[in-house]
Amino acid sequence: MKAYASGYKTVFDEVACRFCTPYLGSIPTDLKGTYFRAGPAMFSAGSIVPPKTSIIQPKQPPVPDGVDPTRMVRHPFEGDGAVLGITFGGGNGDADVDKNDVTTDATNQQEQQQSQAVFRYRFVRTTALFNERKKGEKCYTAMESTREMGSDCALGLGNDWHLPLYRHHLQPGLNKNRKNTSNTRAIYWGKRLLTLWEGGQPYKLDSLALSTEGRSRLGGAIRREEDPFGSKIVIDAKKNRALFYGLDQGAKQSEVTLYEFGADFRLIGGGGRREFALPGFAVLNDFCATENYAVFVQPSMGTNAMQFVFNKEPGKVTTLEKDKAALLHLIPRAGSLNSKLSFPIPVTNDAVDANLQFVNAYEDANDVVIVDAIRTECVGAGKQLPTWPWVDTIEKYGSACGVRSLCRYKVDTKSGSVSKECLSRSNCAFGVVNPTVTTQRHRFIYLNIGAGDTNKASPPQGIGKYDADTGAMDIWMPLPHEFCGEPMFAPKTTTTSESSEDDGYILSILLDGGERQTSDLIIFDAKQISAGPVARIALGMMIPHGLYGCFSQDAVWSGDSISRRARLADKVESRGNMWNEVKSDFSGLGLRLDDIDEVFPGLFG
Questions:
Q1: Is 22 in contact with 535 (CB distance < 8 Å)?
Q2: What three-state secondary structure class fits 318?
Q3: Cα angle 389, 391, 395; round to 5
Q4: Per residue in 225-234, is it b (16+ CB within 10 Å) or e — as a string?
Q5: What is the three-class DSSP state of 155?
């Protein structure tokens, strides 16, 4: 487990642009696009060295993890977010080919360009990151009382490993209690790259350089600066739409806002932004969608109404009620004539229906909705949350995380009944499907698989392919000191409407916690996971355990274009503008151009 724990080390050196070549196999010629992924990467607060030209220098220099316990985040989810981008198939630009050289073999040039991936890795320049960097100390501690509760918080799910049920302080709006780390998900939609975090506004990034452009209200779709926003996107490939949500939490009633955008990242007409009331205090960290509904699961929460008014620490004013049924909500999408439906989920002894990681949902015959999700079993009470390096033993990991199972919920909308079935207890995590079947019936689910006893919690390590038709699981496991991150499906450029659902590639970031202490990108043929990677690309650095990402075939740029944009971003930052602007929430030149660009697309190129 020391190898796994090595994935929780602060990244002190970013990568502006690096050309990487496989050391095993080759990059498939029909793989083109960019894989983006977000995750926490700064665990010792304020650990980026600002440019030497910055007027304001930190009061305290960066320190290695563990040297100053007062600067360490209490839970890795509190770490500041960073984004990686790996581009395939864009070539290296015209600068690599001398068009007047008749000896140049164009075919060989193309093969050489395809053999390289362009890698970059940068922190998201959030307001919180600026504040802590300038002071050289941890400034946001409002969640620490909740973290100190360990497994006594929300049946162990409140501080669950990787993705806790409680992800932010309950004080609404922009304040020093709610730290928006923008570390949970990277999305690319409508030619815009955003990072998401539960309860705060998205941050917009430059897609090539990964430099931060500032917080975004999505062209005014988020009406107020203080309005919360969710950390999940569902892309409906059939309708070419993107769905998001926001949640306004109240002690007695909450309100969820469902957003639906077209391909131009504008709210669609006929209900692109709709609000729905939910009973009681709602905790929603994820959702999925069918052709006609957005699907949420709301666990039963108890609140102390009096304390809730004065104290907004989630672990102290709310409780997760195991013996009461969670509600499964079917919320009608834009253009749907259906009404909102809510159904209780039967209570079982094995786990509570809370903090689900949704995979996909679809509408089956006879008005039945199928929902596949990953569910975590409760952790026994009385276990403290480990301190950094957190999970260097399997016992420490088990004290912070329960066994994760792949479950299927069946909702009969006519009778109002909900049934659930465990599909796999393989310590599953980060399940995905081929994006072309999102909101539609799927057969295959790709997910992380733990090693060892399925009755004990173990960290994500291998890659599995679950066949929902047969129940079979095709698995590849790396060496004991290697751990795979989220699997991401990348369609082939040769894919047609006649192609099979598993006609594509699976990408994952593999962390080698052994002697190499580095990370690789690994590429699988989605048809043959157990056959192992068809290519392994050394990235030249250790990338911390990440969370969610995306792959886009539309995000293809030459290596030369990425390199030039990265140099420009570094030049702008070296002038100290973003470090000198004390109150600005924006980087670059301190100008808020993101919403202008969203209202007038293409105005700035």
A1: yes
A2: strand
A3: 140
A4: eebbbbbbbb
A5: helix
At 319, which amino acid appears? T
Provide the edge-to-edge strand list for the sheet that holds 288-289. Answer: 288-289, 293-298, 327-332, 341-344
Rg (CA), the chain: 23
For residue 261, what are the contacts with CB-CB under 8 A and spacing of at least 6? 189, 190, 218, 221, 241, 242, 243, 244, 267, 268, 272
Task: Report the distance separating Cα 469 and Cα 20, nearest Å.
Answer: 38
pLDDT band at 307 (very low <50, low <70, confident <90, very high): confident
DSSP-assigned beta bridge partners for residue 328: 297, 343
Query: What is the helix (H) or strand (E) element at residue 432, kind and residue range?
Result: strand 429-432
Q: Alpha-carbon distance 101 to 62, whole Å?
A: 50
Name the pLDDT band for 231 (thresholds 50, 70, 90).
Answer: very high
- Answer whether 437's CB lies under 8 Å from 420's CB: no
Residue 586 pLDDT: 35
Whether the predicted pLDDT of 106 surpasses 90: no
CA atoms within a 13 Å half-sphere pointing along the CA-CB vector of 518:
11
| Mean pLDDT confidence for 64-88 | 96
Specify whether the CB–CB gap between 188 and 233 falls below 8 A.
no
∠ CA 474-480-484, rounded to 5°: 55
Q: Residue 472 in 3-state DSSP?
A: coil
3-state secondary structure of 301: strand
pLDDT at 114: 65
pLDDT tens for 382-393 read: 889 999 999 999
* Alpha helices in 76-136, H assignment, sequence order: 106-114, 127-135
Q: Which two tokens stand for residue 315?
A: 């672990």
Token output for 446: 């790709």
pLDDT digits (tens, 9 = 90+) for 193-207: 999 999 999 999 999
Q: Residue 277, Cβ neighbours under 10 Å: how many? A: 11
**Cα distances (angstroms) measured from residue 372 to each of 44, 346, 406:** 36, 16, 7
